[in-house]
Amino acid sequence: xxxxLKLKLEQxxxxxxxxxxxINTEEGTKNxxxxxFIQILGYxxxxxxxxxxxxxxxxxxxxxEKVDYVIKKNDEPILIIECKHWKENADAHNSxxxxxYHVSKARFGVLTNGHTYNFYADLEKPNIMDEKPFYTLxxxxxxxxxxxxxxxxxxxxxxxxxxxxxxEALKYIKAIKNEFEKELDNPxxxxxxxxxxxxxxxxxxxxxxxxxxxxxKRALANSINESINFRLKNALSISETVPSKGSGETLPxxxxxxxxxxxTTEEEVEGSQIxxxxxxxxxxxxxxxxxxxxxxxxxxxDDNNRKPLCRLHFNSSNxxxxxxxxxxxxxxxKLLNSLEDIYLYKKELLQTVKSYSxxx
Length: 360
Fold this sequence. Notes:
Shape: flat
CATH architecture of the largest domain: Alpha-Beta Complex
Structural class: alpha+beta
Strand order of the largest sheet: 1-2-3-4-5-6
Number of strands: 11
């Protein structure tokens, strides 16, 4: 179910990317992007007892107020959806959804611009929609953990208890994560004093606080980098050696280098494993090295930057594999419609291996 859901959402993302510049109205966004999303969840958009467009929500003295869509299951509203034009921020209009939620029996509300879907509940006060979403789905950044949550909103998988059980955790984990990222970028005085106070028993003067703030920032960055490298190397089954030059000498770790922005994704790991499987026809595993950067995921021969085997460019909506010939600095990029397309370039990958004449 999850794989099928992800494939359909990826196809919808491609549709949004290709058509958005031609969509000039909110109505166009609803028809071209939001209705297909509702269909992906398994609901029949042509069944007025299941998906009700322009549902009337009378709010106090205001009569005839309409919400864009109400989704029903067993004749009970389970989800209300308010849509905005794809150019608008999906976070900026929750006050209108807030009013609709108040008079609706649905436990969940969605605010969307066709490519970002913010899911709201009433975790703070019963029947009053929270100010912040507990779950956000971004079509441009689909994650397996995110899809597991979305499955609970599908027609066949709808599970109110399961959603409510996880909604509070999702909300507060997201809030904690945001605060943690702020601390990484600019540690607060409170964070610095908390950490330094564990080992430094002298008064922390203003001057020392400035110094310790810089030390804290670097320490947090280094700790995360080491954790990322450890997990990556375990996932890829590579040695624990630090990247080296062609001579085989070990390079020292530069603690001033900011690597926090490097994010190794599941797709990069999966793609690299496909490449590794192909290369194993000519190379032993120990001669296949991996190195992630902010702009690409590199696969090297003998962990030598001068001997790239290929690069995976997965940081945008379109994915590419960059192929190399004779170790040139820049290669030839090939578009990948799916990770399976990597197998189409088996011949080129093996030819690159053979082009390095010092293979033994």
